[in-house]
Amino acid sequence: MSELLNFNYPPEPATDRVTLFADVILPLPLPKLYTYRIPYEMNDEVSVGVRVIVQFGAKKVLSCIVADIHENAPADYQAKYILDVLDDKPIITAPQLKLFKWIADYYMCTLGEVINAALPSALKLSSESRIQLHPHYNPEEDEIIFAPQEEKIIFALQNNQALTFTEVGNLLQIKSYHKFIKSLIQKEAIIIFEQVSDKFSPKVVKKVRIAEHFVQEEGMLEELFNQLTPQPKQLDVLLNYLQFVPVHQDINLNYRGIEKNALTNNPHLSASSINTLIKKGVLEQFDQIVSRFPMEHESQQLPMALSEHQLQAKDEILGLFKEKETVLLHGVTGSGKTEVYIDLIKHALDSGGQVLYLLPEIALTAQIVTRLMKVFGDKLGIYHSKFSDNERAEVWQGVLSGRFQVVIGVRSSIFLPFHDLSLVIVDEEHEPSYKQYDPAPRYNARETALMMAHLQGAKTLLGSATPSIESYYNCKTGRWGLVNMTKRFGEAKLPEIELVDTRREQQRKNMHSHFSAKLLNDIEERLKRHEQVILFQNRRGYAPFISCDECSWIPKCKFCAVSLSYHKFNNELRCHYCGYHERMPHDCPACGATTLRSMGFGTEKVEDELKLLLPEAEVQRMDLDTTKKKNSYQQIISDFESGRTNVLVGTQMVTKGLDFENVSLVGILNADTIINFPDFRAHERAYQLFVQVSGRAGRKGKPGSVIIQTRDPLQPIFNKVRSNDYQTLYEHEIEERMRFGYPPFTRMIRVTVKHVDDKTAENAAIVLAKDLTDRLGKQQVLGPEVPYIFKIRNLFLQEIHIKLPRETTNLKSAKGQIAQAIFNLKLLADFKGVRIVADVDPM
Which positions are annotated as binding Zn(2+) 2 (predicted)? Predict the structure, then answer.
């Protein structure tokens, strides 16, 4: 949509008719909704959930969502008119609006921030202020005195239809150009308008078909062949078309035609002959709106028949759903949880409902989509951040219309406009990837999915081989149902896990760079047997940092308190927090020495060294650096599945639910960095990572092995991993958390204070912590303290941790007290520039 919108809507005539007002959600971090007046002629068009265009402030025109309609004019300001309505029907459903309000309330953010995160960019509008000559202004007749700068603007507008504000500033080469625009408006020489463009546009393809009378009238097609016999190139085009569209078998097939590209991309056909046939009227060309997803086919196969063990789990889940809204499926890796999910999805669709299938990683989506497409065909929609704006908008519209009955996607899928949801599946529910960190809303998709299902009367199934302590606690206390799957599918057995003491191996000179002799020999053996290997290193890049051998200089980020990681492929040093990067220096900037050494290792170095140590290995890497392009996940997984690569090196991406039948060995290269982390969830996370990545081995009957390299093989967590003893881990962790007051016994809120000056950040945090302590109590407020990474993006950080006992705290009241304390701090003159972020349930 593109149109010019006047800021001043014509006034309504005096009348007794009802004047309506709309509260709208602007895509801005505003604490309150804004009220606009609905023009009388739009009364029937404006409804809750539609997008409308409004003027906000002096220059902005924005699209926003109508949240409420009433007859109450705002008391504190004069309501402006809504300028236009963009939708015939609401694009936000009633359950969605309730969910968005809950997200804003629970995660302490604004509705505008939620809407901004929820709507695909293609469903938002872009606007830019522009000026043009007033329609009634006549330079030959109107005797208006202009300043020289105004004359310059008028002259430019006589040669251009319109100018943006930026272009006016560039034209006059001054900063204070707005006064001349204002003056020209008052002199009625120009008007301001906003060019608003609706970004979403459907995908259109050019198609061709044989003109109708040639296929409808008997004998016409044969006569056409005779006419084209002297023109062999044109005849080839027609014959090629009929191979794609056999109209002699069914003339109705001709109506669909084929994409023109199918003919023009054929090197054996003449493009000019195709166009000649179109000009002659033999072929007719037409446009057709098509899906952006290559899934327009019926389902090809039924779900795989469930084993006795899977069938029992499914029946238990359905039985528990009769009593409880939420069930946790605790199944060991390779137990066949996905097949149970598929059967439950089919059951939900047969009942007429919609299904959301959440996954923590795009990489997982890429593999599981293929399996689901074969069962659900074009009922399946996919939603994740690697899709273009238009693709995401198409899925949004498809869910709204009911075209997509099943959606598989990552955390942002919880924002989609489901209106008849009956089942939500959250796979790998323990994953921290479900948590959004920046910007707001800082929501957890697992918790939000639970509320989403509750609001729509749907059931939620959480699945994991290594459930979060909080989720398992909810089952143990009877709040949720619990179903266990303790056996792997088919004949597959859990892999054998072996520890390699790298400290001892170094002493015996059995380490080849970062690989033990045991790991290298086992990789070589697997490759000889034409089996595959996964290697896990929880750090990307070539090396965590570089250092000068002479003076110990280490390059640091200019904007964050971290060292720069070395990325060999691009020969650069990169900050993994803010993205700052610089070229790798040839010599030390501090002392001039050329002895710069890379310290530690990341996935890029593992890949490089493995290629040198085992030249016969076909190695591929899967981390954030290699998966930036849209289809890179799919390509890496496809290459590994097909055997084009036989060793996959990766970060946490390779640990999460990937299913490769030929993987018989998994290597964990540096286990200690995962265990020794300053966080109360460190042991839980380490167990989850080790068990999950180990579970990639031996999934289809082949015996699997796992080699964990560590400098501390006596670490207790390894015994739990080797025996797959989740229960002992849970009992230990839940006792520790009860003793020290951590979730699930408390709710935690982390308040981060940020400022460009470290002393200002510290003083603001001290004042805020005192106010919070006065409001909530000394036992509930910890800090302030300087975090491990104390500066990010040029802002110094201070953190305050708030613990709220779950059983005795009124959460809504406590959040109100926190919000008030933050508001009070911002009123203080000394802390005007301080930024404060509240993160509810930090991970």
Answer: 557, 560, 575, 578
Distance, CA of 314 to CA of 24 (rounded, Å):
44
Q: Is 229 contained in some domain?
A: yes
Mean pLDDT across the chain, nearest whole number?
86
Question: Is 551 within the bounds of a domain?
Answer: yes
d(C-alpha 76, C-alpha 82), whole Å: 18
What pLDDT, on the 0 to 100 scale, is given for residue 126?
53
**pLDDT 10s digits, 700-719:** 667 789 999 999 999 999 99
Q: Which of 281, 296, 331 is the last residue of a domain?
A: 281
Residues 596 and 606 in one domain: no
798 and 754 belong to one structural domain: yes
- Residue 303's region, left for phi above 0, alpha for psi from -120 to 50, else beta, is beta
On the question of pLDDT at 2 being above 80, the answer is no
**What pLDDT digit, counting tens, does each position of 441-497 carry?**
999 999 999 999 999 999 999 999 999 999 999 999 999 999 999 887 766 778 889
Specify whether 646 is located in the same domain as 523: yes
Count of positions (residues) in the chain: 843
The better pLDDT of the pair 549, 462 is held by: 462
Q: What is the CATH number of the domain that holds 719?
A: 3.40.50.300
Return the pLDDT at 59.
64
My answer on whether 568 and 649 are in the same domain is: no
Show which of 90, 111, 146 is a domain's final residue: 90
Asked whether 641 and 700 are in contact (CB, 8 A), the reply is no
Tokens representing 790?
């104390």
CA distance 207 to 563: 55
> What is the residue type of 271?
A
Residue of 468, 457, 488 whose CA lies nearest to 328: 468
825 located within any domain: yes
The answer to whether the CB of 534 falls within 8 A of the CB of 650 is: yes
Q: How far apart are CA 215 and CA 250, in angstroms?
A: 10
Do 672 and 767 fall within a single domain?
no
**Domain membership of residue 759 as a residue range:** 746-840
Give the ranges where 265-336 is alpha helix by DSSP (H). 271-280, 308-321
Strand, coil or helix: 824: helix
Strand 283-290 versus strand 581-583 pairing type: unpaired
160 to 1, 155, 184, 376: CA distances (angstroms): 22, 9, 16, 54
Runs of H (alpha helix) within 596-631? 603-613
Same domain? 555 vs 513: no
**Nearest alpha carbon to residue 69 among 79, 57, 59:** 79
* pLDDT interval class at 323 (50, 70, 90): very high
Q: What is the average per-residue pLDDT within 514-542?
A: 90
According to DSSP, the β-strands at 20-25 and 60-70 are antiparallel
pLDDT at 799 over 50: yes
668-686 b/e with 16+ CB inside 10 Å = b? bbbbeebbeeeeebebbbb
User: pLDDT band at 299, cuts 50/70/90?
Assistant: very low
In tens, the pLDDT along 123-146 reads 776 555 678 888 778 776 667 888
551 is in an annotated binding site: yes
The percent of residues in the chain predicted with pLDDT above 70, rounded, is 91
Please check if 109 is assigned to a binding site.
no
- In the chain the first and final C-alpha atoms are separated, in Å, by 42
Confidence check: pLDDT of 296 > 80: no
CA–CA separation, 813 and 435 (whole Å):
24
Q: Strand runs (DSSP E) across 614-700, as ranges?
A: 619-622, 647-650, 663-668
